Amino acid sequence: MTETEQPPPLAAHAVGVPTRRLDGPAKVRGTAPYAWEHRLPEPVYVHAVQARIARGRIVRIDTAAAEAVDGVLTVLSHRTAPRLADTFDRELAILQGPEVGFRGQIVGAVLAETPEAARYAASLVQYGYEQEPHHTELRVDSPDTYTPEKVNPSFPSDTEQGDPEAALKEAACTIDATYRTPMQFNNPMEPHTTIAIWEEGDPEDPSASPLLTLYDSTQGSHTVRTTLAPMLGLGAERIRVISPHVGGGFGSKGMPHAHNVLACLAAKVLRGRPAKLALTRQQLFSLAGHRTPTVQRVRLGAEPDGQLTAISHEVLEHTSRVKEFAEQSAVATRMMYASPNRRTAHLLAALDVPVPSWMRAPGETPGMYAAEVAMDELAEALGLDPIELRKRNDPTQEPETGKPWSSRHLVECLTTGARRFGWDQRTAPGTRREGEWLVGLGVASSTYPGYAMPGSEVEIVHRGSSRYTVRIGAADLGTGTWTVLSQIAADGLGVAAENVRMEIGDTAYPMATVAGGSSGVTSWGSSLLNAVRAFRDQYGDDPEAGARVRAGYPENPARERYAVHSFGAHFAEARVNAVTGEVRVPRMLGVFSAGRIINPLLARSQFIGGMTMGLSMALHEEGVFDYTTGHVVNQDLADYHVAVCADIGDIEAAWLDEEDFVSNPMGSRGIGEIGIVGSPSAVVNAVYNATGIRVRELPLTPDKLLGE
């Protein structure tokens, strides 16, 4: 890779050995280039102009003041921007007409010689609007609700087994509670950034189409290319996307957003000069997706011994009128616990809001929060230990499909965690006090599907002397792709790991699926080992220098016969100040069943990162929305509170020693998202145990406790 700094050689380790990140030294030194940092000659800086209304149309544009700013080259609007070849995706089809679908939508852009000039000039562009009535508030009586055909990614919206309504009426003990979660925002440290260079084809060859190069902060360079190509009227082979290092994403960089299209349109206008665009922190709140707010009604029915007889989980969420995104919040309930009668349902309210999108463990995170707090409420109502209730309802096979589990060790996770965390010290709600502090312990289960995405390919080249280059267009958004794939390759090729050179993050390399759904290592690693087998079959044990093979994702029919999921158990200690309502969480523990752990050092980081994000969701994160203007009020990191170092106490992750070769040939399952699932519930349940006050709306701020 000529555009990026290669990571240093890997030490002689392989799968299962704690190994430091290959890209760590370059990142610490500041020499690992992120999208904005690629040095290109004569860049032009692009700053987006955003709509100031929630719904309507533009009737007047005044760009004179902006164009008069020194260094400004041009101002784009729907009247002057290049036309797109495909405008089906209304989130991405920007500057193609006067319609405004939400506040913050891109309605123009300034192109200037410096970022300061572009940003200042953008503030001078004046728009006149013809406003239309808008609706931005998610309400249970919203007139615009409907049942989507499917929920992310392709699950049926509603399911029903048995007769849950009759079973609820006949149950010895029932829980009927409504839980609410707010809008939440991904907020990766590296903002969404794109540099686009549009070069016209060979003037002596009229059939040669333009070439477009993008340096992009993305979780999937190939996804960016295949999404943008039809919109721009280009063949995918005429677009190259380069993305060697990504500073976080949490799902928000899993698919292109409107800023990608804006950079391409600006580059087309510039014809050869790089168009350089980085969203500001404030712009991320309307242009990079968010987690939808939810209203979730959970009903549980049980026998006196705790056996569940009925489960009903109904979810109301919002989507944008511009483009549908249906979060699968109730889907995990379909497979988590045993019950002969169950119902899950999703309703969407189409509102004049920015487009929601993926955020770490979309669906499972808000859905399992509600379901696991409801399980805690049921345990309390039955007089059962919350762990015992979960054990008694552990299914022997996947309830929805009847398939056997490839691996399910939830009970072992709960038992191991209880022993390590000191669960036997838990007291009745509101009874343990240390000075001004009320102290409690909480637990919650966790699950996440073992996704695999066919489509990736890997190229292996022998460089001589048992040295290999391995190429795949995969992404490393801080999760350790450079390192883990190098370990897998070294094991597969039977060489010292320092003899493997990984090349990733470029569409010049073979196709790779998106880094999402905790599927990266399963999808890419399976393709990598398949390429290793093909290499050995073709060249034997003594290949010549230059020997090369390319292979894709292998068939794995066993996956169709089994239910593949990861599981875990979260434990939290909460301390609540009886005077101020302040909540502190000094201890958290997660115990996970996630197959073979390829790199324990990096895995621990992923687990505790997810747990920390769940703690943040429980206590801090809330997008405050002004329904009259359609504006996210706290659209920065000063007012959108997230957990910081001072909020984190003793947080630890552990895992069971297991392998799951149904999942993939490495025996592993994904770990990027299971850490957050269930984590907020454990914190909320611990606060209840400390105070005896049940809070059903996140975040759990002091006012919700002092009001009791």
Commentary on this structure:
By secondary structure, this protein is α+β, with helices and mostly antiparallel strands. 24% of the residues lie in helices and 25% in strands. The strands form seven sheets. It has a seven-stranded mixed sheet. Strands 7, 10, 11, 16, 17 and 18 form a six-stranded mixed sheet that branches. It has a five-stranded mixed sheet with strand order 19-20-25-26-29, sandwiched between helices. Helix 8 (364-382) crosses helix 9 (386-392) and helix 14 (600-619) packs across helix 15. Residues 1-5 and 8-12 have low confidence and may be disordered.
Helix-strand layout with pairing:
Blueprint: H1 24-29, E1 44-50, E2 56-62, H2 64-67, E3 72-76, E4 99-100, E5 106-112, H3 115-122, E6 126-131, E7 145-146, E8 150-151, E9 155-156, E10 159-161, H4 164-170, E11 173-181, E12 193-199, E13 211-216, H5 221-232, E14 239-242, H6 258-270, E15 275-278, H7 281-287, E16 294-302, E17 308-320, E18 342-351, H8 364-382, H9 386-392, H10 410-421, E19 433-434, E20 437-449, E21 457-464, E22 467-471, H11 481-493, E23 500-503, H12 520-539, E24 548-552, H13 558-561, E25 565-577, E26 583-593, H14 600-619, E27 625-626, E28 631-632, E29 650-655, H15 679-691, H16 702-706
Parallel strand pairs: 1-15, 13-14, 17-18, 22-23, 26-29
Antiparallel strand pairs: 1-5, 2-4, 2-6, 3-5, 7-18, 8-9, 10-18, 11-16, 12-13, 12-15, 16-17, 19-20, 20-25, 21-22, 21-24, 25-26, 27-28
List keywords for this structure.
Aldehyde Oxidoreductase, domain 4, globular, 708 residues, alpha+beta, 29 strands, seven-stranded mixed β-sheet, six-stranded mixed β-sheet, 24% helix, 25% strand
